[in-house]
Amino acid sequence: MKIDIFCEVQKAQESWGEDHEHVLIQETLEQARLADELGYGCWWEVEHHAAGIFSHSSAPEIMLTTIANQTKNLRVGHAAVLAPFNFNHPVRVAERAAFLDHVSEGRLEVGLARSTAPEWRLFDIDPDDARNQMQEAFEMLPAIWTEEEFSWNSESFQIDRRNIVPKPYQKPHPRLWQAVGTAGGFQQAGRNGVGVLLTTVNFPIEAVASMLSIYREEIKNCDPVGKFVNDQVALFTFVHCAETEQEAIDNGAAAAAAWYVNTVSDFFEVREFMLRAGDELAAAVAANPGSALADWAAMQEEAAAQVEETEFTRLLNRMVSGEHISNEEAYEILNEQDTVIIGDVDTCRKKMQRYRDIGLDRLMCFQQVGNLTPEAIKKSMRLVGEQLIPEFDPEATPAGAS
To answer: Could you count the other beta carbons within 10 Å of the beta carbon of residue 69?
Structure first.
């Protein structure tokens, strides 16, 4: 299992100081250089717009180009390009990606996502058409990258024969991925023959394993949109490693993770998103009543009927109401979540092993979270890099060792 980094370019507002945006960007670049030195596999950068409360990563292609120029072995991944056309025209996506692939000398990974309601509104995108537009972008990109005379004729685009340059450094083209957070997303990624970037916050490991069965079922008989199949699965989750459990508590990592869950749920209007996902799942099950998707839907329905408020959800609600939560209490509650990897090296190792055991190919470690200090983040990165990466990815090549 590869150990990667997932980055929002994030710092909680309470930690902002003078010229905080410039400082944050420079801290992020320093962390990327450190990741390269330690042998992390890939630096995954999100794309979000008007999301200053939790993400400054509005131009990831620029940040990834800078990181590529300042690193040696670290792969650079866009997780993910917002694919609906008002965000990014597919031709521009292809051109920028090909340039970045050359700049990085073939270290690029390209993911696509459809985004969610607040960004759809900002860019005047029809939510009901977002998934279809992402699908069309998936189909266009490999053709743009590999055809000397590219043409396209659809309701969205009429493009007569054009040689769109440059072509990517990697041949035939970089690996393609899809950011997913629903059963429908797993199904679409499998059908397209592209890798999965699982970006759902606090998703139970058992549910991930069930979702993987949907993906594996689809990808077995896929007609890939690209020139080859990428069947890898990557997942992002909170990771903070310290020398001792008490140090992890004192650093406030659990409180930072809880802050992120609340913040992202508010920004992305998660309730409305899940209602839409539920409607999509019902439609998909109706079309495929005997599939693994139907089994997943039945399991979800049964789980929903038994849902009770948990200590974790109560904690989130208390934080929203403005109640002060101690670092100790936040850690005690979040430590019960398998999906939150916080603690000393041994604790982090055991939790990472569970992801490896269900067949995960890449673990995207989300370390720059909330108001964690740059020093605590870098120390966590070092502990993972020096003590855990060699165990989980013996073939990892730290920049200083190659």
So the answer is: 9
